[in-house]
Each structure stands twice: as C-alpha cells, then as structure tokens.
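Table S4 entry, Acetyltransferase.
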Amino acid sequence: MTAEDTLLAGRSVTLRSISDKDHESLWKLIYKKTDPEWKKWDAPYYPLEPHTLDSFRSYERARKERLGAEEPDSRLIIEVKGEIIGTVSYYWEHKPSRWLEVGIGIYRAEYWNGGYGSEALKLWIDHLFSSLPLARVGLTTWSKNERMMRVAEKLGMKLEGRMRKCRIYEGKYYDSIRMGVLREEWEAVHGWAANQISSKS
C-alpha cells in the first residue's frame, strides 16, 4: 500500500491515512481547546506546538512529502464507527540502525479505558513489522502515564529503561520510561507471521 491509501481494519477500530478532508476535524480535536485533557498525559512537559488550521494543513502535507519511497505512512487516524478519536504515529530515533519508536494519542477522553488504544497499537505494530525490516519497535512514555505502560505491557512490550526523575510536571519529578518489543517476541505473543519482512533484509 502507498502512504495515500493505508487502511487497517480491526474489530472495533480502523486505522487509515489522513486525507485533506480530515485536516479540520483533526485540528479541532488536537488544537482547538487551550488546555486539552489528553495533553496532560501525552508528554505534558513538552508544550503543544501551536497550529492554525492552515499551518496544520501545511505540516501534514509536508510530513507525507518527507516519507521515503518505501516507507509506510508515518501517521494514521484512529476511527471508531466512522468517528475520529485519535492517531498513531512512528518516528526514527536512528534510521541507519532501524531504531523506530511508535506513538499513540486518543484525543477523546470518552474512549479511554475501552480497549481502543490497545487494539489500535496492536494493528499499528503489526503493520510496521510487516512493512519494514525492523528488529525492534520501541515506545517512550513517562511514569505518571500508567495507562500507557499497561497497554504496552499487555501487548508484550518490556521495560527496557527507566531514567529516574528526569521529567518535571506541575512541580513534581517523574521518570522517563522506555519500553520495546523484538520481532521474535511479537511473533511469539501474537502468533504473527503473515507478510513478514526479515529484520536482516
């Protein structure tokens, strides 16, 4: 699939590429509120980069244009029954060694704790292992976001690093948490073998 037509369907959620017609809805979810609830859990020690609707459109178009010819789309919408509830994404920590990190944001609080994030992240990691020659997929969060850590652990990710008291939020120190899963661990947990790309290719 190309970056323009990625579509991953699960039991309750669908992941799909962001089209121009989605920009306004997604912008409203992420940027319209001054102090959104989701941001209090999603790396709140980094300020939310402000965007107007026009600058967000430009940002999204530029993101797609930066993708390599063989790279999957780096950010997909999460939908439930046709309603946009969040996004999944990936970025390269160090592309030459294929060190890739994933992210997920559920912007609608009413969809928290319903299993939607777990399903979306599983679909996403399946897709990335099948699309790229990765040995490992990583995820970085912080110690207050216990919900994110539980989701990662539930999917088979292991705690790989804890940098103690290196994040400050609302006057308190928190740890930075590194989690990850190896290709062979993912296959063992999820029975995933279809459309594999060898990490040695």
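The first strand starts at residue 7 and ends at 9.
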